[in-house]
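Justification of resources, computational component.

The compute hours requested in this renewal are based largely on the per-chain cost of generating structure records like the one below. Each record pairs the submitted sequence with a full structure-token output. That output is archived, and it is also reused by downstream analysis tasks.
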Amino acid sequence: GYGSHGTIVYKGTFEGRDVAVKRLLLDFYDIAHHEVSLLQESDDHPNVIRYYCKEQCDRFLYIALELCPASLYDLVERGSTFQYADLLTTLHPSKILYQIVAGLHHLHSMKIVHRDIKPQNILIAPSKHKKFSKKDGVIQQTSSVRVLISDFGLCKKLEGDSSSFHNTTNNAGGTIGWRAPELLSSSVPPSPDGNNNNIESVWTSVDRLNDNSFTSSSTGSEYDNGQPRRVTKAIDIFSAGCLFYYVLSGGDHPFGDRYSREINILKGVYELSKLDGMGEEGIEAKDLIMRMIERDPKKRPKAEIVMLHPYFWSPSKRLGFLQDASDRFEIEERDPPSPLLQRLEQGAVDIIGPDWYKRIDRIVVENLGKYRKYDGSRVRDLLRALRNKKHHYQDLPDHVKRSLGEIPDGFLFYFTSRFPQLMLHVYYVIAESETLKDESMFRHYFELPGEV
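The structure output for this chain reads:
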């Protein structure tokens, strides 16, 4: 394969194992050794490419890296015609995306900003560990894959306690169509009224560029309102948000085709319609992506917050969260309603409709009425109904169980398919309360494993 700055990648061997050998021109000595240095520092993570060794010869520096059979770009763009297409079928898209952001979280925790997240720099490799599953009483080996972040040539190491760095003409970096707006806006001359009326001027001769591989090393002016422009880890989050949609949509980009992407990125004009037919999963994915591609970098979530989003939760975790939320809301003052309950019921019609009973099967409605009266206009009562049916599931008549579905998957789907906004609504009621999300019953939903 070929990369920027005259880079060529070969297949080779190192100590008896197959490796990828990356050859870099010594004309770009600083870039080459910068990449090696960051690889040595950051490769101790399952979602970051493994570095083995380096050798210098004549005009080249050779780097031995973990060999991966395909990139995310290969799998999405070439689809079933690609010889390693089966790799993609072994993972749900959410598993792919979680591994990408887990790798980013690792880099960011080491104060490394990647600066060139795109499909070509996300590699796919078979898992190092074999997994086994039992089906019809027979134990079978199942294949799984690892998703790895690669290509550290444009990475930036943040100095000391700094959380940002200067975006200058010497270190801007990024790839056309995958760069955050703050990396582009320095090229747009400000208009007298403060609006970017000259935004079209930034888009020049992009039709001559190969969007699949072109990497920029400059974005224009290095000053913003007379001050040196500074950018943060949020540029990686923006690129990852675009990548999320690329995976979920099967190759589309939220900001359009390659000829209009950068103008749309600057304008904040995007399209996520491919997620509309995915039910609750699509609603949660859209919420997450919209936050990641927010124009204002300060409003984008950090990598760990992305990893904690309900989109990545298992059905059992989602169900447990809704149950815990119901228990917590039940102890709140109802008359008059506490501020927390008022927040919960804001926009209730959009979440559950004017009467949630009308979205529930008659069989379930009749069973609910035997034990307690619920207010069909309140989110709190719907959560309580869900909680009570889950808590007493084993005691329910068989025909009610069949209607509700098996726990956790079927039971959760019964409610979320009828109320697809419910999960996110309850999540943000709790997540946006600093005191509530720190309570013992919720804390584990808002902390990464190993960081508690």
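The first helix runs from residue 29 to 42. The chain has three domains: 8-67, 71-311, 314-443.
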